[in-house]
Amino acid sequence: MNQIKELVEAVVKGIQEKKGKRIAMVDLTQLSGAICEYMIICEGNSLNQLSSLSDSVWDTVRTDTGEKTLSMDGDRRSPWIGMDYGNVLVHIFLPEQRSFYDLEHLWADSKITEIPDPE
Description:
Layout: H1 3-17, E1 21-27, E2 38-43, H2 47-65, E3 71-73, E4 80-84, E5 88-93, H3 95-101, H4 103-106, E6 111-115
Helix pairs in contact: 1-2
């Protein structure tokens, strides 16, 4: 399997383990000049859940792929946490901030796949 696809799957798995909601995978591979190949966007209901989601993504990606983030923005009090894995960017939002920034629609020419919420 492609290394980037494995990374995307590990990110989604980490989000689902902590019950992240409204997971969207934005495929930017067909857009020239895009900042990355894939963007994974999700939301949590509280600042504590956002921290748990980012910790879970960090741990799952590290365990499943051996990859480390190149950088991370946001902390335990942030309504938006960004994780940069180079070709994959992860955005974890509170619902209000996700709605305000509306990242999915900034890349409207890309293919967006909605991933069902975990049970």
